[in-house]
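Nuclease HARBI1
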Amino acid sequence: MEVSPDLVDSVVKATCVLHNYLRHGALDQALQEEHQGGSEEDNSAAAGNNNPCLLDLQRPRGNRASAEALGIRDTLKKYFTSPAGELPWQYSRVRRGLHGNPL
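Predicted structure tokens:
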């Protein structure tokens, strides 16, 4: 997908705002209203981040790819940089990105 860096920045910022709104705003209020009349424990859970719609992410256990994944990457790299797999336009696209020219 070819888009400008400014558009990417705007999309990322809008996504963060939407996430924060859903995480801390509208859903918390809706959950509180849903649990009104319930026990004190139910109301406190509704006010926190324990909503079922947006669960907390867990830290990744490892940041290294498996040997199999690295082997596949190397095989694809060799193919796409060989005469059999390369495309006429691929290097000009890479060079445009290196020089700060918009894609």
